[in-house]
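>> Question from a student workshop board

For tomorrow's exercise we were told to take the sequence and the ligand below, predict the bound structure, and bring the output to class. My setup keeps failing. Could a helper post the expected result so I can at least see what it should look like? The ligand is adenosine-5'-triphosphate.
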Amino acid sequence: MLIVKNLKFSYKKTAVLKNISFDANQGENVAIIGESGSGKSTLLKVLYGEYDLDEGHIFWNDNEILGPKFNLVVGYDFMKYVAQEFDLMPFITVEENIGKFLSRFYPEEKHRRTQELIEVVELTEFAKTKVKTLSGGQKQRVALARALAKQPEIILLDEPFSHIDNFKKQSLRRSVFKYLKDNHITCIVATHDKEDVLGYADQMIVLNNNKIAVKDTPEQLYKHPKTPLVASFFGEFNVINNQIYYAHQLEVVNDSELKMTVTNAYYKGHYFLIEAELNGEHMFFEHPKSLKPGTEICLAIKK
Ligand SMILES: Nc1ncnc2c1ncn2[C@@H]1O[C@H](COP(=O)(O)OP(=O)(O)OP(=O)(O)O)[C@@H](O)[C@H]1O
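>> Workshop helper replied:
Here is what the output should look like for this input. Compare the format with yours to find the bug.
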């Protein structure tokens, strides 16, 4: 179990992280979200033991995670960290990179394990390719597989699918998160992408102003977003009478007090996102058809 108690950290004088406390059970998936600069990457690095804390403690079971003041070599065997920049060995192949840290004394096991991980990150056809010739997204997948090679108990992932194209992203995400769950590996993932969270995370932590703004299951935070920051992570939203409503919760009706003028319509596949205006205030709602700018409409909250 990961226990983070009252963590405070600053690079220089001002704190980047304050009062951070949370737990994660073995096998749990915890998503860290927040705006750019809110401290997500810093939190992962601090959890990894890359920096010394100003205050607080981090434990993985009975081990306290300590920074460079206390450890000559950063990191622990039970924990792996996949950064946004991945430092791979460019002149050897994908499978050699992944197998690099596996024991040479058990060649069959090493081969089996390497192949298994290559399949998890869907790189089978590139197994014999030198890493230097791979695309950014392919390198990111090698870095993920390499971090999993020695079966960590906990893995810290910083934007793990940010370089992966949309064609691959969905299946890769399912494959990696399923592998982590099946193997009871605790996963702390920093992300901007709600698709990395919904359907996978057991807990979601929202960082804002150097602190944890909220912490709950993705379902609770999606259904009851208490702040615009949380709602904006999930999609377009509106604030009506101090309540937050997503675009799909509004509909066009024949008559209502919410009379607006359409300003834009955006094609979204199975619906259009319509932007409408009233006295300079903009609202967004989903509609099955496009609406012409200038169309007068009445909106209501769906029952
Ligand atoms: N090595 C560093 N030295 C000093 N300040 C830093 C360093 N790294 C990050 N910061 C600052 O710490 C704050 C948090 O940065 P961090 O990279 O953790 O944010 P983030 O939420 O991961 O952002 P992003 O989503 O853009 O990756 C920012 O204000 C950043 O400028």
